[in-house]
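User: My collaborator sent over this chain with a note saying "see what the structure looks like." That's all I know about it. Can you take a look?
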Amino acid sequence: MDTGQVSEPATDVAFDKTICVAMTGASGIQYALRLIECLVQANCEVYVLMSKPARIVMGMDTEIPVPARTAQVQSQFSQMFGAREGQLKAFGQEEWTAPVASGSGVPDAMVICPCTTGTLASVAAGTCNNLLERAADVVLKEGRQLIVMPREMPFSLIHLENMSRLARAGAVIMPPNPAFYNLPKSVDELIDFVVARIMDQLGVKQTLMPRWGIDEG
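Assistant: Without extra context I'll predict from the sequence alone. Here is the result:
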């Protein structure tokens, strides 16, 4: 019998993967912002770590208002990218109770995008001076995927040795180098090329760019 009552929709949402996106103070934050947007659209839970220098770079590289506090990062990015409630969480650099600080809360993967050479050195040395460095350390020790995207040129021998050390530890070293065989017509297309490659590495379905040799028609 129809009682006129409407069933409440389920509030628990299952996300396909949990990905941590960390932004440091190198130019190229557009890659990270587009990556977060695409991960949200792909039904991933996204943890965001944003250093203070990354906020400075965001103000220089984009016209997007720069969030001053971690809570503002979470609110602003959730609204920007259309995240559902609880889908996007931001953590401060001293927030040691965050899930990413422990092996019991390790995400499926972490992407440091863009990665300064200073962060590269700290992660390679395992110093764990802040939450970002600790999160990367946890991802490596738990055997999860760490993608490091150093945005520098040229590389010194110190940079290359730090990359080599991280690669031996299991990290993927992935400088954000766009290609031109797809005849890009805008900066956005160059950004999408790099983000598509990150998504492929993460095993997250993407439609930004077809894979080489595959006819999408």
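A starting point for your reply to your collaborator: Helices lie at 29-41, 52-61, 70-81, 117-125, 131-141, 157-168, 187-202.
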